[in-house]
């Protein structure tokens, strides 16, 4: 009958019979030796103990489990950040619509708000060529002191397109800054909450 020695807790124990080995707390990587083996060998590689190897539970790969846990946490972090990004774009869209009404972008674009010189000059910062000064008579006298800026119907449409393009760019820039600011604020709140939960979990 073959007798086996085992290495448990860095201590050599034995000899044991095959049946005795069943009673020990062994794993597939427990080192085994008997006279038929040249050196200490892991149990899973000892052919004579195949029956015992099959009775043991499979090995737990702690490194793989840890790696899976890290990947899972990383995936959850990415999903959370992606949700925050979506929320930031939604906030930016809401502010874009609100600012579009505030600066009359939608009024000029969709509701045909009248294009006058003062509003156009305020938006563009210069006098479009389509506007011409029309002098009016005062007591039979003409002069630059009296008159108004005049524009043709076709000129109004040209100016409207220029104004709408300028206001659209202004609204887009405002909403873009809002998206960036919202994202940074939401990220800060997200990690602040996680930090508070972590402190509460591990504090004594």
Largest sheet strand order: 2-1-3-4
Category by helix and strand content: alpha+beta
Shape: rod-shaped
The rounded Rg comes to 41 Å
Number of domains as seen in the coordinates: 2
Largest sheet: 4 strands, antiparallel
Helix run count:
6
Order of helices and strands: EEHEEHHHHEEH
Number of strands: 6
Percent of sequence in beta strands: 15-25%
Low confidence ranges = none
What percent of the residues sit in helical stretches (DSSP H or I)?
55-70%
Protein name: DUF4339 domain-containing protein
Keywords: Membrane, Transmembrane, Transmembrane helix
Organism: Salinimicrobium gaetbulicola
Would you write up a description of this structure?
This is DUF4339 domain-containing protein. Residues 4-49 form the GYF domain. Pfam families: GYF_2. The chain crosses the membrane at residues 81-102, 174-193. The protein has 204 residues and is α+β, with helices and mostly antiparallel strands. The protein folds into two domains: 4-55, no CATH class; 62-202, no CATH class. It is 57% helix and 16% strand. The protein contains six helices and six strands. It has helices at 18-22, 50-55, 62-102, 105-110, 117-124, 153-202; strands at 4-8, 11-16, 31-33, 41-42, 132-138, 141-150. Strands 2-1-3-4 form a four-stranded antiparallel beta sheet. A two-stranded antiparallel sheet has the order 5-6. A hairpin with a 7-residue loop joins strand 3 and strand 4. Helix 3 (62-102) runs antiparallel to helix 6. The protein is rod-shaped. The model has no long low-confidence stretch (mean pLDDT 87).
């Amino acid at each position: 009958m073959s007798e086996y020695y085992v290495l448990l807790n860095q201590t050599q124990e034995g000899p044991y019979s095959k049946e005795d080995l069943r009673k020990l707390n062994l794993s597939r990587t427990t080192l085994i030796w008997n006279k038929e083996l040249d050196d200490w060998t892991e149990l899973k590689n000892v052919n004579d103990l195949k029956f015992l190897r099959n009775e043991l539970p499979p090995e737990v790969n702690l490194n793989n489990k840890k790696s899976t846990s890290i990947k899972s946490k990383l995936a959850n972090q990415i999903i959370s950040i992606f949700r925050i990004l979506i929320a930031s774009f939604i906030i930016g869209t809401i502010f874009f619509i609100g600012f579009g009404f505030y600066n009359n972008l939608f009024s000029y674009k969709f509701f045909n708000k009248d294009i006058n010189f003062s509003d156009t000059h305020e938006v563009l910062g210069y006098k479009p060529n389509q506007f011409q000064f029309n002098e009016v008579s005062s007591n039979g006298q003409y002069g630059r002191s009296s008159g108004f800026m005049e524009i043709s119907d076709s000129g109004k449409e040209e100016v409207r397109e220029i104004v709408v393009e300028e206001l659209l760019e202004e609204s887009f820039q405002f909403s873009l800054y809002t998206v960036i600011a919202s994202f940074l604020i939401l990220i800060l709140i997200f990690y602040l909450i996680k930090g508070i939960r972590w402190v509460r979990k591990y504090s004594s």
